[in-house]
What does this fold into?
Amino acid sequence: NLWHTSGIFGNRVSPSFATQNRRFHEPSSGFTYLLNEKDGTWKTEALWDYSAIRVGRQADRSIQMLGDFSDGGKTFGVFISPTPGLPFGPTADTADHPVLIVARVDGFKFTPLVTVTRENNQFVQRVDTNGDGAVTKDDAGVPLGAGANGQPLPQNLFNRFNDLQEDGSIMTMSGPPFLWKRTGLDAKGVPVYEAKNYVCLSPKTWDT
It folds into this structure.
């Protein structure tokens, strides 16, 4: 089907929960496609602007577009990457490379709102506090802190296989698998991902 045959290099496409999956994203090319349920046809919709997500660095090739979701009358795109220096991630010298980007959909453009980066052996979250349409070191960083039940977060929040859920939560099929539950929007309408809601899905006997 189109979900798996349209992906460049055999990759699958990404879902659009905001459109009840009538749209799907092909991130490698930047195009989206629209499905017509009534007659079983599809058509090219648009070539999207990823420039604020992939800013031109070689490392940005590791960023995966997981899909989109809607909340509060807005649509948001979710992008992830393995941690720099770890398997499937960019090289270790790209410390400013984000492992999570949440972006607002503005027409056919993604505008970053939130990033998470790995800095000084901890994960740091930044929000576009100055409203310039980018998340940079000019925006104050806040350490994510501990994960569920006070446990430290793994060094690699995301691995090779990851899935977006309809509510914007993120599942990563690492060993063991984790679910990062999204907890609504903040007062400014920005999606919230808290470390305490990054939860292991495996039973306690996983390693035994």
